[in-house]
Amino acid sequence: MSATKQQGTLIEIEGLDGSGKSTQIALLREALEARGLSPLCIKLPHYDDDSSLLVRRYLAGTFGAKPGDVNAYQASTFYAADRVSGYKTRWGADYESGRILLADRYTGANAFHQAAKLPESEWASFFAWLYDFEYNKLALPKPDLVVFLDMPPAVSSKLLSDRYQGDESKRDLHEADYTYLLRCREAALAAAEQADWAVIPCAEGDSPKSKESIHADILKHIGRILA
């Protein structure tokens, strides 16, 4: 007799590039392991897999030099297809067995990065289309909690410059367009309000908060879904 599948727990960490998602995923993993849990960390897109080819070509500027050269719906399908591949071949079995998944980006990234290309009057309908497309049509798991690390673009852009040691050519299509990043933050806050995401302020003035302070705020929200 085959084992009965049970739904896992999916915690999604979102934020603009440079907001500290990977750092917070690592801290959260340590905290959960200290509680005797065994979370699986997934980082999206799967840049080491063929499933991300269209994403990589898009971010490299193959389809146009500006984010808007690929419309919100087209780009969304690139990322969604990569998630389907990952679910089918990498982490779906873990989720279905009841494991906790910590996702560094997920559907929420599509929500704000792609809505930023649209007029604000179309954001609500785009969010509705996206969630129906990914969670219903493509049957991807719906997150139990989405945490948005709200790092202002002025701060995250500086952190990216530090990461790339001043070599601006290393920025991808999204990272290189500061106006677009400002728009993404507006769209993310709208998505957060609409879908009840947990928003964590990550800066005080022009300086980022400590990673420990941000982690503590995240743990408060984790308590909503993990007893």
What's the gist of this structure?
The protein is of the alpha/beta class and 227 residues long.
Give a quick account of the main beta sheet: strands, pairing sense, barrel closure: 5 strands, parallel
Name of the CATH superfamily: P-loop containing nucleotide triphosphate hydrolases
Q: Can you tell me the number of structural domains?
A: 1
Distance between the termini: 31 Å
Percent of residues in helical segments?
40-55%
Task: Spell out the blueprint of helices and strands.
Elements: E1 9-15, H1 21-34, E2 40-43, H2 53-59, H3 72-96, E3 100-104, H4 107-115, H5 123-137, E4 145-150, H6 153-163, H7 178-195, E5 198-201, E6 203-204, E7 207-208, H8 211-222
Parallel strand pairs: 1-3, 1-4, 2-3, 4-5
Antiparallel strand pairs: 6-7
Helix pairs in contact: 1-8, 2-3, 3-4, 4-5, 4-7
Structure report:
By secondary structure, the chain is α/β, with parallel strands linked by helices. It has a single domain (19-222), classed as P-loop containing nucleotide triphosphate hydrolases (Rossmann fold), CATH 3.40.50.300. It is 49% helix and 13% strand. Strands 2-3-1-4-5 form a 5-stranded parallel beta sheet, sandwiched between helices. It has a two-stranded antiparallel ribbon with strand order 6-7. The longest helix has 25 residues, at 72-96. The protein is globular and about 45 Å long. The model has no long low-confidence stretch (mean pLDDT 91).
